[in-house]
Write a structure and sequence with these properties.
mainly beta; four-stranded antiparallel sheet; single chain; Lipocalin; 2 helices; 33% strand; globular
Length: 254
């Protein structure tokens, strides 16, 4: 099994990481208030492959491959305590790994055999993104949250399809006006077999289907709220559509 883990960044590397707010500058940040004992410390993700018996057979430490300056913390409300914190990892057909790091607004592809970063997409194209998904045509579908864009003062979300050969955006969905579609956290998108795209606007519990031209053909808002009495929410972390055949196969496997 492949796990996304958290490790402490060596202090000499941490000192060179660009961006991020110190604890005394941001009393309550994206990941909550950090205790004084964490002052000066920095954490980042590492990938680990474990056998079913718990033996580690492969590791990849992000701080050994990312550049502290080029791949600095892009999210302005992120504390320096956390550098490259992953929110998604996908194993590709050839064993390579596609990983999304929200604080640095970057998606990378890791060559599994060598550990090298063989592809990277970061700001200004991305801003606190989630759920990079490989498509059959070789492109990558990404939910771009857009909390703090470096090329636009207005926060807005969008879904983009990127050609990794050129890093050009070949398809985009965003609302008009753009502020009508926005989730600062979470979210995902799924390219359906009919060519449409299912989009999850997580923070508002809304998921909807759009055509290639961006026309909405189906929409649903989660009517179920939960959580503390003074902070009820209908948030939906992820939304996926399954065909009857996929459901039947899953039942058979179970």
């Amino acid at each position: 099994m492949l796990l996304n883990c958290l490790g402490q960044v060596p202090r000499d590397i941490a000192a060179r990481v660009v961006g991020g707010a110190e604890d005394h500058e941001l009393s309550s940040g994206l990941y909550g208030h950090q205790p004084p004992a964490e002052a000066g410390r920095m954490y980042a993700d590492y990938l680990a492959e474990l056998t079913l018996s718990g033996k580690t057979v492969w590791e990849w430490r992000s701080w050994e491959h990312l550049d502290p300056a080029e791949d600095g913390i892009a999210e302005v409300q992120s504390l320096r305590t956390l550098w490259s914190m992953g929110n998604n990892v996908v194993e590709l057909a050839n064993g390579d790994l596609l990983v999304s790091y929200r604080p640095i607004s970057t998606v990378i592809r890791i060559d599994r055999a060598t550990g090298r970063i063989v592809w990277k997409l970061g700001p200004p194209t991305l801003a606190g993104q989630h759920a990079p998904t490989p498509l059959p045509n070789g492109n990558i579908l990404i939910f771009d949250n857009g909390v703090h864009r470096v090329d636009d003062p207005l926060p807005f979300s969008r879904v983009i399809e990127v050609d990794p050969a050129s890093n050009k955006i070949v398809w985009t969905y965003q609302d008009n006006p753009v502020s009508n579609f926005f989730t600062p956290r979470m979210g995902n998108a799924q390219r359906l077999t009919n060519g449409n795209t299912l989009i999850n606007e997580a923070s508002f519990g809304r998921f909807f289907e759009v055509t290639a031209r961006g026309e909405t053909v189906w929409e649903y808002v989660n009517p179920y709220f939960g959580g503390p009495a003074d902070a009820q929410t209908n948030i939906v972390f992820g939304a996926y559509r399954y065909t009857p055949e996929e459901i039947a196969a899953a039942r058979s496997a179970g």
